[in-house]
Design brief:
This protein is α+β, with helices and mostly antiparallel strands and about 150 residues long. The chain has one domain: Deoxyribonuclease I, Chain A, CATH 3.60.10.10. Helix content is about 35%, strand content about 20%. The chain has five helices and six strands; from the N terminus they run αβαββαβββαα. It has helices spanning about 1-20, 35-50, 80-85, 125-130, 135-145; strands spanning about 25-30, 55-60, 75-80, 85-90, 100-105, 110-115. The strands form two sheets. Strands 1-3-2 form a three-stranded antiparallel β-sheet. The chain has a three-stranded antiparallel β-sheet with strand order 4-5-6, with no helix packed on it. Strand 4 (about 85-90) and strand 5 form a beta hairpin. The chain is globular. The mean pLDDT is about 80.
Amino acid sequence: MKNVKRVEKISGVIATFRKWDTNIICLAETQCAWENFTVRNKVTEEIKKVDRYGNMVGSSSSVACGDIYKPGGTATFYDGNWAGRLKKGVDPHKLGRWSYVTLSGRNNTHFTIIIGYRCCRKKTVATAGIITSYMQQERILRQRKITGTPQKIY
């Protein structure tokens, strides 16, 4: 039931796409497991209901969570006016901190839109839980044997 509510919220954001006559919407702290194929497909399906050529790019950490809900993450939704003229990408460090779209224009001009966020100050498992964006990023950095806090690395 919780997952259905989350997809309904995303559907509401996508409906706003048309209501505001918007071509691109950028969201930070989406709290979605964008690496999950089912999640991406369901959201893309909702986008296609509004604009059959629209699409999205989403970024979340590489930490497995087993649910659609995952703290952190970013997403950029775009309509069909741009679909054929853009390149998209995500945080290559797999921390889920940012995603981008680069629009191609005339005369080899490009315009890049980046949506990102910085996780909050350190929270402990006892005070915030094990899957906060901070804890996800800290776990990834520890596995890579990288010292420092998620706020200061990369």
